[in-house]
Design goal:
The protein is an alpha+beta fold. It contains 16 helices and 25 strands. It has a seven-stranded antiparallel sheet. Strands 12-13-14-15-17 form a five-stranded antiparallel sheet, with helices on one face.
């Protein structure tokens, strides 16, 4: 099947798939068994195996990208449970109550997506075959993560639980890629339900080779997989036979040629351009192969969507990667690549990589997309899991948690044995419809939304966020030394020590972010760049508003002014006779009046230098 073009276009009645395909007759396939569901939550996982990391830890990132999510840090305390106890299940995305499952006799402490044993799980939704979503059962993908984290001690045990839980209780979500990691190894597990056909799910899990990096971003990535290598690949017993049963895979075809992704989530334009492209941008920046970026450009542009054109599941990086490095990779917007969205008219004057949603749109008879970058505005929360084996497990697992857009998040460290959630990240402190000045989510949203239309501020805000993260890493290393000493004799005291520090750090980071918003507002309000005139600045004697600041006009770039002229022709052109000195002097005076309070007015604004030497910061075209 040659999918020449495929776009997902919104309509007032939901999501409409619009396809232009060849050969004739393939269109029916798109709406039948092979159709792909809309990616409801568009997330990104970037994965580093222990042998590829700077400190020998497993590292991976996760962003919970959805405009409906309110970013808080979840917590399940460890517990012992009576025989026949039940656990209530709510769907993670919709909030709908699904029912009850049997509770385990013992459950572990879980903070965010990390448990006290140093096991962490992330995910991205790939959707996949539309007939296999919304099946019978009680477990959605989010609940599957939480329940597993409360019961499993390591990655392999977690994979086994994924299989047994979905077999027993069913699976009601669409297709998912999961990252499952502990301090020794990291796996990618891809799963899709059985829809209307039967209860349960089919899945395959592949271990990322030590020394390699991987990633997934709303497109299933596992293609062919080894059928007899349980150390590195495990799968549900019916992952192939189920595909044969429902007609996706011919009964006479060879099992060794079976590709999970190509059957259960066949590649589409949006699967390559808006999904796999995020993995490509990460791979291209770290790959040992200097030609990687160019080698897969046609694929991520959506020009070559054959199975053979797709990227490998994992690659070898050119250098070791740290947790703070991954935090910066989460801020990727395709800068400097063929997908860089910061230069066309949609970027507006400040060169923003972001676009107002929807992510796909239509003009005339054609459909178009906006780039979907790694750093993205519609996010609830995000994290980097750093899983270290040289420390006691409740200390060795570290969750660097952030809220809203990972571009501007300050990732705050929480250990797997953390026993409380800070007020700034707690449920009940504001929500998606109610603002709170104590909420980290609203603090970081406030700053980010101020910066979006003023993208020239982004580099300094990103630098400030990353500096805070690096400082946290240095401080945490010292705190952990003391905690380990305490842990040998009094584990509970050690975890209380680290919990208290994490609480205070997060609440202080939230206050600092609101202070940053105040600084940005003062400095960049009303389209100006505002600063002090110095220690001797006039101040009205302390009356009439006090100090007089230095007010500079930001203006636009030459290329943007050229675009305005091209679009509007002479509509804004000044018609005064430039050869008449008296008229030009009056014009200069008028411009000074109109620019009152700015440095242009103080110097004397005039087109063509008519007001004399030193004049003129206003550009007139």
């Amino acid at each position: 099947v040659d999918l020449a073009h495929k776009y997902i276009c919104p309509s007032s009645r939901g999501v409409v798939l619009v396809a232009a395909m060849r050969p004739a007759g393939v269109l029916a396939f798109a709406f039948g068994l092979g159709g792909c569901a809309w990616r409801g939550r568009a997330c990104t996982n970037l994965i580093v195996s222990p042998g590829a990391s700077a400190d020998g830890s497993t590292i991976f990132s996760y962003t919970a990208d959805s405009g409906a999510l309110y970013g808080t840090l979840g917590h399940y305390p460890a517990g012992k449970h009576a025989l026949r106890s039940k656990r209530k299940i709510w769907d993670w995305d919709s909030g709908i109550y699904l029912g009850e499952i049997d509770e385990a006799p013992e459950t572990f402490n879980v903070i965010g997506n990390l448990n006290e044993h140093g096991l962490a799980i992330g995910e991205t939704t790939f959707g996949g075959n539309v007939t296999l979503a919304g099946g019978e059962g009680l477990l959605d993908y989010g609940s599957l993560i939480w329940v597993t984290l409360q019961r499993a001690r390591d990655a392999r045990e977690a994979i086994g639980l994924f299989g047994s839980l979905t077999s027993e209780y069913g699976y009601v979500s669409e297709g998912e890629s999961f990252t499952i990691g502990d301090s020794k190894e990291v796996w990618v597990l891809e799963m899709i339900g059985k829809g209307k056909y039967e209860k349960g799910a089919v899945w395959v899990a592949v271990r990322i080779p030590d020394g390699h990096v991987s990633g997934h971003a709303n497109q299933a990535r596992i293609q062919r997989f080894p059928l007899n290598d349980p150390e590195n690949c495990v799968y549900s017993p019916d992952v192939i036979s189920f595909a044969k049963k429902i007609g996706l895979w011919g009964a006479s075809r060879v099992d060794a040629e079976f590709s999970f992704s190509d059957l259960y989530d066949p590649i589409t334009f949006s699967g390559a351009r808006q999904s796999d492209a995020r993995v490509w941008s990460f791979f291209a920046s770290v790959a040992e192969d200097p030609h990687f970026e160019k080698a897969y450009e046609n694929y991520v542009l959506g020009r070559n969507l054959t199975a053979a054109a797709r990227m490998p599941l994992h690659i070898k990086p050119k250098a070791k990667i740290s947790a703070t490095d991954i935090m910066m990779h989460m801020r990727n917007h395709y800068e400097g690549t063929v997908l860089d969205p910061s230069h066309d008219v949609g970027a507006q004057a400040s060169g923003s990589p972001y676009r107002t949603r929807p992510i796909a749109w239509k003009h005339g008879n054609n459909s178009y997309v906006n780039e979907r970058t790694v750093g993205t505005q519609q996010a609830g929360w995000n994290f980097v899991a750093q899983l270290r084996g040289h420390l006691p497990a409740p200390i060795g697992g570290l969750l660097w948690f952030g809220v809203d857009d990972a571009t501007f998040s300050v990732h705050m460290p929480f250990h797997g044995g953390t026993t409380r959630v800070p007020k700034s990240l707690a449920d009940g402190n504001g929500d998606a419809l109610n603002f709170s000045y104590d909420s980290a989510f609203w603090a970081f949203n406030t700053v980010a939304n101020f910066v979006y239309p003023r993208w020239h501020l982004a580099p300094s805000v990103i630098a400030r966020s990353h500096a805070a993260e690096v400082a946290f890493a240095d401080v945490v290393a010292q705190e952990e030394k003391r905690a380990v000493e305490m842990y040998e004799k009094e584990p509970a005291k050690a975890m209380e020590y680290l919990t208290d520090l994490a609480e205070r750090r997060a609440d202080e980071a939230t206050k600092s972010e609101f202070q940053l918003f105040g600084e940005l507002m003062v400095r960049s309000r009303d389209g100006f760049q505002i600063s002090s005139q110095g220690p001797n600045a006039p101040d009205h004697g302390g009356h009439q508003g006090g100090i007089v600041p230095k007010v500079e006009e930001v203006g636009y770039s030459d290329s943007w002014y050229a675009r305005i002229v091209q679009d509007t022709k002479d509509h804004y052109k000044m018609a005064d006779d430039r050869t008449h000195p008296d008229l030009m002097a009056h014009q200069a005076m008028k411009l000074r009046v109109l620019a009152k309070g700015t440095t242009s007015a103080l110097r004397g604004a005039a087109p063509g230098g008519a007001a004399g030497a030193g004049a003129a910061s206003i550009v007139v075209v």
